[in-house]
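Suppose a colleague, Dr. K., hands you the sequence of a protein chain of 88 amino acids and asks what its three-dimensional shape might be. Before reaching for any lab equipment, you can write down a predicted structure in token form. Begin with the sequence itself:
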Amino acid sequence: MAKTSSAKKAYRVAKRRYVFNARRKKNMKDAVKTVTKFVASKAGDKAVAALPALYKAIDKAAKEGTIKKNTASRMKSRLTKRVSALSK
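The predicted structure, expressed as tokens, is then:
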């Protein structure tokens, strides 16, 4: 266990950040699963409608540092490509 007061504070901060990061990551993964489910079932209109929520979740996670910027960009690009392939 932490001995110094600064180490104790760092532990408290890390616990708090873990909760926030876990929440953001869960929201992001749920949005990805929703879009993926619509793509798999060939429901293009529903997938397009779910994209803004997906972008919001991914952008929030990237903004707060839960995931990196390039990871967010890559995720959005790949999922958008899959959704747009349905409409062709």
